[in-house]
Fold this sequence. Notes:
The structure holds two protein chains of two kinds. Chain A has helices spanning 176-188, 228-232; strands at residues 4-11, 14-18, 44-50, 57-58, 63-64, 87-90, 96-98, 101-103, 113-114, 120-125, 132-136, 140-147, 150-155, 165-170, 196-203, 208-209, 220-224. In chain A, 8% of the residues lie in helices and 35% in strands. By secondary structure, chain A is mainly β. In chain A, strand 12 (140-147) and strand 13 form a beta hairpin. Chain A contains two helices and 17 strands. Chain B has one domain. Chain B is 10% helix and 28% strand. Chain B has one helix at residues 89-102; strands spanning 6-10, 21-25, 29-34, 39-44, 55-61, 113-117, 136-142. Chain B is globular. Classes of the chains: A mainly beta, B mainly beta. Chains A and B meet through strand 1, strand 3, strand 10, strand 11 and strand 15 of A and strand 3, strand 5 and helix 1 of B. Strand 11 of chain A pairs antiparallel with strand 3 (29-34) of chain B.
Amino acid sequence: xxxxxxxxxxxxxxxxxxxxxxxxxxxxxxxxxxxxxxxxxxxxxxxxxxxxxxxxxxxxxxxxxxxxxxxxxxxxxxxxxxxxxxxxxxxxxxxxxxxxxxxxxxxxxxxxxxxxxxxxxxxxxxxxxxxxxxxxxxxxxxxxxxxxxxxxxxxxxxxxxxxxxxxxxxxxxxxxxxxxxxxxxxxxxxxxxxxxxxxxxxxxxxxxxxxxxxxxxxxxxxxxxxxxxxxxxx
Amino acid sequence: xxxxxxxxxxxxxxxxxxxxxxxxxxxxxxxxxxxxxxxxxxxxxxxxxxxxxxxxxxxxxxxxxxxxxxxxxxxxxxxxxxxxxxxxxxxxxxxxxxxxxxxxxxxxxxxxxxxxxxxxxxxxxxxxxxxxxxxxxxxxxxxx
Lengths: 234, 144
């Protein structure tokens, strides 16, 4: 029988970035791991723009609502009045996310919002493409230290090409032995019956490392499947 | 003889069309990835033997909403946008149940393992031993 190794990326509940005034794109969001790997817009449940000084312009179709509870926002037209501190919710489906930077459609486009300098944009995360993943232990090929605080786990490609899928772990300096022990314990737990082993779960404000402490002080994991985001969905 | 656990998937068709049903040896499972907050895809070594194009089974489940959001203590408005859809617990639940079924000990059994059976066959030809993982609402099989 075999264990299955489960991982979930570092994703906070929310993250906020400001707009400094270029191309209607926010500054890079922080606290999300490596910003360059934050590319999947379907990991974003909602986008809220808080006006800094009443500037900015929104398309009439965006939602203006300051007190709504919105698990499933209805992006219907309501009165649009941008004022200092006002919050507007815009549909993530209309926006673009690349390298940790959110670029909004302009207000001339349905669902768009033209930002003003100093505006803040808050995103709420949800489960999306490659947020979490699992591999059978038999797919684990080994691990290697790549710099003083980084270890890469190699798995056989999920799609079957020659390039490994790589899970990159950021941890405290020199904590390689703790990563080795973590993987040894995860792979060899429950050898007779086999189970799903939650190895590293950093999703939505949680830090769960194999159900116990975090001696390696793991701070984030990045995931680079061989197929990449575009190749994953068949 | 080597023991093997065979994993059965069937969509909500009538097992009358291409890829309405598929079965894979558990040993050919390569891994699974979340695709959205309502889907995860499970990949297997291809049945055509080329090894280059994975076979995939996309399982759909519900995004769990936060029914108590309106009265939650964490506030209203911006504090609540996206509540309840973020953690999507069903992703892990489905992966966990798959792991349990795929790693089950098949010794002294003579049947295969139903991961999910949604087919609409007559009762006597429907799910053989189980309908499978209860959270799964749709199955899509890709075999190139």
